[in-house]
Design brief:
Elements: H1 7-20, H2 33-45, H3 67-79, H4 84-93, E1 111-112, E2 118-122, H5 127-132, H6 139-150, E3 157-161, H7 175-192, E4 196-200, H8 202-209, H9 215-218, E5 223-226, E6 233-239, H10 242-247, H11 252-267
Parallel strand pairs: 2-3, 2-4, 4-6
Antiparallel strand pairs: 1-3, 5-6
Helix pairs in contact: 3-7
Domain Uracil-DNA glycosylase-like: 109-260
Protein name: Type-4 uracil-DNA glycosylase
InterPro entries: UDG_Type-4/5, Ura-DNA_glyco_family4, Uracil-DNA_glycosylase-like, Uracil-DNA_glycosylase-like_sf
């Protein structure tokens, strides 16, 4: 069979297309519209890529930190501090905790006496603490102060938190955020040398004691806090956070009993407990 093109047939076909209104040729090769449609359906079934993070004016970009590196840097910085003043400065200069770049105004380290018999460790600073630069100075702090005064502990305490920057929206600090601040908390304990710890709130008790129980289960019980390097150990009692007591006044009786139990052990250490 001859494959030669009949010129008259081609001219006739072109004339037919012209009469039908075809004025342009869009492609030199045929297009498989079914394959195109299938490709479009497959593209629609794929989830869209996540949006790129947008940097807001005046706000640093938040990235997932390397927790192990941050903890090592905190440990190295804390180890160089020989007094509470240098420790406060080291905390303020520390950039390893992501909370520092999430809207906090300043680092909030401590208040109280430097040779306290009792160290109180809360969860994290709130709005009042962030503004004033000291822990437990808002409504919850004023309640705590009244309780300490009534128990005869007002001038015998050193107060700090598990993290030193206010979490956004006053949320509970994450275990990762607490871990990056833990070396500074341990160094504070080593410098103050308290006889025991009072852990205010579930987040503090869980972080310091490395336990998963709820605060209502742990409160009023004695535990042993041990430092990461096993060089220090202290009796520790979890109790209800003063902010929780403001929301549920009926629980104040339990927290007061915890404080009386702790005070008795502090003042009469030889008695069996």
């Amino acid at each position: 069979m001859s494959l030669a093109v009949d010129q008259r047939a081609v001219e006739s076909l072109l004339a037919f297309w012209a009469d039908a209104g075809v004025e342009a040729l869009y492609a030199d090769a045929p297009i498989d519209r079914l394959a195109e449609g299938a490709a479009m359906l497959r593209a629609k079934s794929q989830p869209p890529p996540p949006p790129a993070p947008v940097a807001r004016p005046g706000m640093a970009m938040v990235r997932s930190p390397d927790i192990a590196s941050a903890v090592a840097a905190a440990r190295a910085a804390a180890a160089t501090c020989n007094d509470l003043e240098s420790l406060a400065a080291a905390i303020a200069a520390f950039d390893g905790c992501p909370l520092k770049s999430q809207g906090a105004k300043q680092a909030v380290f401590s208040r109280g006496v430097s040779d306290a018999q009792l160290m109180i460790i809360g969860e994290g600073p709130g709005a009042d603490e962030d503004a004033q630069g000291q822990p437990f100075v808002g409504r919850a702090g004023k309640l705590l102060d009244r309780m300490l005064k009534a128990a005869g502990l007002e001038e015998r305490v050193f107060i700090t938190n598990t993290v030193f920057w206010r979490p956004p929206g006053n949320r509970t600090p994450t275990p990762q955020e607490q871990a990056t601040c833990a070396p500074f908390v341990e160094r504070a304990i080593a410098l103050v040398k308290p006889k025991m710890l009072l852990l205010a709130g579930g987040a503090s008790a869980k972080a310091m004691l490395k336990r998963d129980e709820g605060i209502l289960s742990m409160r009023g019980r004695w535990f042993e806090w041990v430092s990461d390097d096993q060089s220090m150990a202290l009796p520790a009692m979890p109790t209800l956070h003063p902010a929780f007591l403001l929301r549920t006044p009926a629980q104040k009786k339990r927290a007061w009993q915890d404080l009386l139990t702790l005070t008795e052990r502090l003042d009469r250490p030889d008695r069996p407990h």
